[in-house]
Design goal:
Strand order of the largest sheet of chain A: 1-3-8-7-6
Number of helices of chain B: 0
Structural class of chain A: mainly beta
Shape of chain A: globular
Oligomer: heterodimer
Order of helices and strands of chain B: EEEEEEEEEEE
Number of strands of chain B: 11
Strand content of chain A: over 45%
Shape of chain B: globular
Largest sheet of chain A: 5 strands, antiparallel
Number of helices of chain A: 0
Largest sheet of chain B: 7 strands, mixed
Distance between the termini of chain A: 41 Å
């Protein structure tokens, strides 16, 4: 069955450093992969979408890579800030099949001042 | 996730009562999705609706759960005869018609803040 794996351990980093979060998937060939942020007691917030034919995508301090050979996406936050502390979720999807996004459990990131 | 409105934010029900959760999609969105998030678990797809149509309900429990998205008004997720195991956060999300340009793409969905159901 399709499986999404994200770093299960919480990630603690110092302010100003780069945070790197991993999303691995198996038994799946997604056309897209999306990253969301979720704060406690809140709904997920869309951050970035990367397509299978894109190796890398950037948005301000965020960078996402998508390696379809390794079946992996990496999510980077550069110059991290305490406000970046949250849980980050990845969700691969097939074209036209967004309604059944399969979600990873998320990685909790804590940026210490 | 601005724009997708869910209410109530918090709901407490006794076992056996009914819970009704409401969701108004983002303006211009015609697709609504319901997800459930249990403590320490990931988001699980429940149902996908368009106006007056259930497109995919493969994630819905077979009994006690139902969803609708009428021509007028919000989408409703209804849980009858609630049990303790129904306690969870229920998230609604919406998206525009597939293929239309949006902030992300036609495949991006935008979430509400969730409705937290507690069954006592």
């Amino acid at each position: 069955s399709q499986k999404i794996e994200q770093n299960s351990e919480a990630l603690n980093i110092q302010e100003g450093k780069t945070a790197t979060l991993t999303c691995n998937y198996t038994n799946y060939s997604p056309a897209y992969l999306q990253w969301y942020r979720q704060d406690p007691g809140r709904g997920p917030v869309f951050l970035l979408l990367i397509r299978e034919n894109e190796k890398e995508k950037r948005k301000e301090r965020l960078k996402v890579t998508f390696d379809t050979t390794l079946k992996q996406s990496l999510f980077h936050i550069t110059a991290s800030q305490p406000a970046d502390s949250a849980t980050y979720l990845c969700a691969p999807s097939n074209a036209g099949n967004n309604r059944k996004l399969i979600w990873g459990l998320g990685t909790s990131l804590a940026v210490n001042p | 996730n601005a724009g997708v409105m869910q209410n109530p934010r918090h709901l407490v029900r006794r076992r056996g009562q009914e819970a009704r959760l409401r969701c108004s999609p983002m303006k211009g969105h015609s697709h609504v999705y319901w997800y459930r998030q249990l403590p320490e678990e990931g988001l699980k797809f429940m149902v996908y609706l368009q106006k007056e149509n259930i497109i995919d309900e493969s994630g819905m429990p077979k009994e006690r759960f139902s969803a609708e998205f009428p021509k007028e008004g919000p989408s409703i997720l209804r849980i009858q005869q609630v049990v303790r195991g129904d306690s969870a956060a229920y998230f609604c999300a919406s998206s525009p018609i597939l293929g239309q340009v949006s902030r992300g793409s036609g495949n991006t969905i935008y979430f509400g803040e969730g409705s937290w159901l507690t069954v006592v």
